[in-house]
Amino acid sequence: MTKLKTLRSAALAGAAIITTLSFPFAAEAQRRSTSSATPLDEAAVRAKVDALLAQMTPEEKAGQITQYFDFTNTPEESKRVVAEMAAARAGSLLFVNDPVELDRLQHIAVEKTRLKIPLLFGYDVIHGLRTIMPVPIAVAASWDPKVAEAGQTVAAAEARAVGLHWTFAPMLDIARDPRWGRIIEGAGEDPYLGAAMGVAQVRGFQGAYLGSRSHIIAGPKHFVGYGASLGGRDYDEVNLSDSELWNVYLPPFKAAIDAGAGNVMSAYMGLNGTPASGNHWLLTDVLRKDWGFKGFVVSDAGAAHDLLTHEFARDNQDAGVRALNAGMDMEMAPPFGISAFKTLPQSLAEGKVSQTRMDEAVRRVLEAKVRMGLFERPYVDLKEAQRVLNDPAHRIVARNAAERTAVLLRNEGGLLPSAIRNAKSIAVIGPLADSARDTVGPWVFDQKDKETVTVLAGIKAKAARGVRVDFSPGVNIPNRMFKSIFEDGPHPATTRVQVDEATEIDRAVGLANNADVTVMVLGEGWSQDGEQASRSSLDLPGRQQELLAKVIATGKPVVLLLMSARPLDLKDARPQAIMDIWYPGSQGGAAAANLLFGDVSPGGKLPYTWVRNIGQIPTIYSHLTTHQPKTFGERYWNEPSAPTYPFGYGLSYSTFAFSNLRVGKASVAPGEAVPVSVDVKNTGSRKADEVAQLYIHQRYGTAARPVRELKGFERVTLAPGETRTVQFTLSPKDLTYWASSTKSFVQDETTFDVYAGNDSTAALAATFEVRKP
Ligand code: NOJ
């Protein structure tokens, strides 16, 4: 293990925290990221780009800022794409991930086009390319930015090795409505956690600087507000107050941009009535003028043309004009539709867009290509690609990540891990227990099922000789009523093997009856979370609830592993132990086994409030105090309004005590930092992790502020009896917020409460004042 000093700046959302970190392969990651020369000289980049720009025709410029899909799934499609790029009508392609094909296409671009400008290849490397990490919401549940950084370092290395240069990630959309399927791609409900995870991912993808060898460009998305779609329905309109926008939805993006992200993707939906992809205020005033973003903005797929769909633009040409003028630099053209940027030469001739704006967009794209070293090293080393894709070290990063992302929600009587460790027979039950495709979750296209360790395989590999492991899927994961693009599009899904539920449920119950302990793996199928995977229910799909109830009714101990990315509503089912393993990735089953058998203690924490049922949505921990606060828990007459589990919650195989919360200064002046520390003691009998969480509450001021806001966290590993003092610094930024009444950021003279503990209900409290001297 190597120690790595990492500076984590959560920028607008939080304090700068310097922590000593250790994680596997830090040294390797560091070596890779610094192995290329230092960043290119700015003047040299500019000169190279100027020289190219001076030679380009309007058509070549429009092509340079157009990105085409290439699904390489039909010969006609491939032919069309090759013809477009050979004619320099595409500066970038997406959706090819085969190194041979990427190399072939690059040879055409470099050898056959007039100006020999290489293509920039983009891809959705969301949580791994070949080695699949847990899904992003799971990584957020680790409350450990090192997990995010290490995972995306591996993802970047694999992507770069096959010839990719750019990922459409991290997704930084705050999601407070678990009906929205894409909650899986982000860090959940909180901007501070979201910013920290976003920054770590940018660092993992890009390395020390844009152009670091073995790294790729990060593209935070979807700018901005996509997670707040009406009713949780994907792509629906978004209406956000400016307080929510500035205090909640924008901060993760600001942090990622401060961390040097080279690209930003504009969102599909309308924000307060103006499509985000045609929104000058967002793409230029905020992103460029206010935040100083230097990279390039790409549209979401077809989002430029969509300005027409939104009934915002008059026609396709107008859509191109409005998008470019708003600040979009590259159009990700619709997969099977019409590109809007194709019409830009005509708009230039008609004076609808300026030469300056057009050149600015082209310049930003060319700069990215120069910085990424594409002119020097455009091609793929095919042997090296295979070596990197098969690097066993990557699998260890994936397993470590999956171990650190699991959240133990319930463990009655300390069932885990001893019940598993001591069992002579284990029944493994559930449709997701041995499904490799489901174990890796959505947004993967290059994983190999045979390389994925399912929970069943993990348990079998781990169980001692002589321990009987029986398996039954029990029931089926039902099909969606409406298929998504991922099931029905150019990458059709593998068909599920269906069991006869009439007999399989009985068989499963029989196995549970005959086993010392049962591990059930239930949840949602991989295509039931993600894009186009919004859902109007939080129930277990199909007959899983019935299966769960029948297995619990055996009276034997039951451990439920949940595989999904939503807070599922388990009704009145009470298995003795529940652990959320999310979609844990290609080493997920190995990690689950290590957790179940107690080699590792779970230490993950919920990145969202676990609502009791669908009717409670949205429920967030950081709400405001309102009229009759005493009745806050009784706002529905039929049931408590408290959630099942609060934000930040998660158990361990050990126990911890928090004490001695100290605020370094009883009173500070505006602009001064406040040191805070708290002692965390492992009061149990085994080594385990705990996450120290710091929350603040402003008592009064220019605006009403949330009852609690996360402003610091640190995951620590403690030996039995060990006490660690965790230090935090509340920066002036942490105490500053956007007030809608003044339309500005303010820091009030006021009193703050500080809370520390292991979830958002932490009881340990202290106060400090902010006063002008
Ligand atoms: C649409 C999605 O919204 C976006 O996140 C993704 O990167 C693009 N499609 C490309 O696949």
Strand order of the largest sheet: 7-6-5-4-3-12
Count, helices = 24
Shape: globular
**Uncertain runs:** 1-35
CA-atom Rg in angstroms: 26 Å
Termini separation comes to 47 Å
Bound molecules: 1-deoxynojirimycin
Q: Which range does the strand content fall in?
A: 15-25%
Average pLDDT score? 94
Q: Could you tell me the number of beta strands?
A: 28
User: Can you give the helix content as a percent range?
Assistant: 25-40%
The main sheet comes to: 6 strands, parallel
**Global structural class:** alpha/beta
Please tag this protein with its features:
alpha/beta; 773 residues; 24 helices; 19% strand; 6-stranded parallel beta sheet; 6-stranded mixed beta sheet
Q: What's the SSE blueprint?
A:
Blueprint: E1 3-9, E2 16-22, H1 26-34, H2 42-55, H3 58-64, E3 66-69, H4 75-86, E4 92-94, H5 99-112, E5 120-123, H6 136-141, H7 145-162, E6 166-167, H8 191-206, E7 217-218, H9 242-249, H10 251-258, E8 263-266, E9 270-271, E10 274-275, H11 280-290, E11 296-299, H12 306-309, H13 316-326, E12 331-332, H14 344-349, H15 355-371, H16 382-389, H17 392-405, E13 407-411, H18 418-421, E14 425-429, H19 436-440, H20 455-462, E15 468-472, H21 485-488, H22 501-513, E16 517-523, H23 544-552, E17 558-563, E18 577-580, H24 588-596, E19 656-663, E20 667-668, E21 674-682, E22 688-698, E23 709-718, E24 723-730, E25 737-739, E26 744-746, E27 750-757, E28 764-770
1-deoxynojirimycin (NOJ) is lined by residues 124, 168, 221, 300-301, 531.
